[in-house]
Amino acid sequence: MDAVSATPVADEVNGILRKHMAEAFSGDALDAVKEQFKNEHIVPLRGFCPPELLEAMRAEAFGIMDEHGVDRKFSFAITDNSPRQMTTVGQPVIREHGPLIDALYFSESVKDLLSEVVGEEVHTCPYAGEHYVISRLGKSGDTHGWHWDDYTYGFILVLQAPEYRDGGFVQAVPHTSWDKENPDVHGALLKSQVRSYHLEAGDAYIVKTDTTMHRVYPIRGETTRTIVNMTWANNADLTRNITHETNDLLFGGTGDTTAVGA
C-alpha cells in the first residue's frame, strides 16, 4: 500500500485487520494473550498492525501531529500531581484529518478482538473526545505520568518508539484504584508490583485503565515516542456518570478548548 497516494477507506482497513488478526491472534497465540491480560490487566499485542497499514497510519498521524500538535505541560492534583509533558492532538482534529485512525477505532475486527481478550463486550466510548487522541514524547524528560483513566479499557497503537535505554516504555500497576478526592500514587506503588513493557512500532497494547495505574517512563536524549490512544467502555461504563477533566485539558475534549492551557 502506498502510504501517500492510497488511503484505505474504512472497509479496506477492516479487511486488512481482519485478515491479519486471523493469522496473528488466533489459537494458542490468542489464548496466551488472554491469559496474560487476565493475570496482569495489560497485554502487548506484538505486531498488531501489518506493515502496509502501519506505514499509512504513520504518515497520517505524523502529518496531523506536525500540523496540529500542541505542547502540554501539566501536573494534575487529581492524579497526585503526576506530570504530563507531551505534544498532543485531540479527537476533533483527528476526525477531520485522520480517516485511517477513525477507521481503526470503528473497526468491527478490532472491537471483536478486544472483547475476546478482555472477556467481555466492549463499546465505543460514549464521550467522543476520548475516542482517539495522538500523543508524542519528543523532548528529553517528556512523560505521561502515573494515572488511571475513567473508562475501563484503553487500546494503544505504537507508531514510533525509542530503544528501551532511552525510556518511553510502559509501566503498569494492576489491582489499584483511583480515588479522585484522595489520589495516592505512591501508596499504590508501595502496595503492588510494577510491571514494565517495551513496545516497538506496529505493536499495540490493551490495558484495564480504571484499575491499573500506568505511565510512560520519561524519555531521554534525542528520541521520539508517538502513539494513538483509543478509549473503550464496558457495559457498566455506559450507565456511570463519568467526567473528563484530564482528557479535556490534555487533548481539548470535543473541541471546547477554553480551559486548555490553564
Relative strand content: 15-25%
How many structural domains can be distinguished in the coordinates? 1
Number of strands: 12
The poorly predicted ranges are 1-7, 256-262
The computed structural class is alpha+beta
The CATH homologous superfamily corresponds to q2cbj1_9rhob like domain
Q: Mean of the pLDDT scores?
A: 92
Helix content range: 25-40%
Using the coordinates shown, work out and report the CATH topology: Jelly Rolls
CA radius of gyration: 17 Å
CATH architecture: Sandwich
N→C terminal distance = 42 Å
Order of helices and strands: HHEHEEHHHEEEEEHEEEEH
Largest sheet: 12 strands, antiparallel
Q: Specify the number of helices.
A: 8
Assign the CATH class: Mainly Beta
- Overall, the morphology is globular
Question: Key terms for this structure?
Answer:
Jelly Rolls, disordered C terminus, twelve-stranded antiparallel sheet, 262 residues, alpha+beta, 8 helices, globular
Helix and strand layout, with pairings?
Layout: H1 10-24, H2 27-40, E1 42-45, H3 51-68, E2 70-76, E3 82-89, H4 91-97, H5 99-105, H6 108-118, E4 123-124, E5 132-137, E6 143-147, E7 153-160, E8 170-173, H7 185-191, E9 195-197, E10 204-208, E11 213-216, E12 225-233, H8 245-251
Antiparallel strand pairs: 1-10, 2-3, 3-5, 3-6, 4-12, 5-12, 6-11, 7-10, 7-12, 8-9, 8-11
Helix pairs in contact: 1-5, 1-6
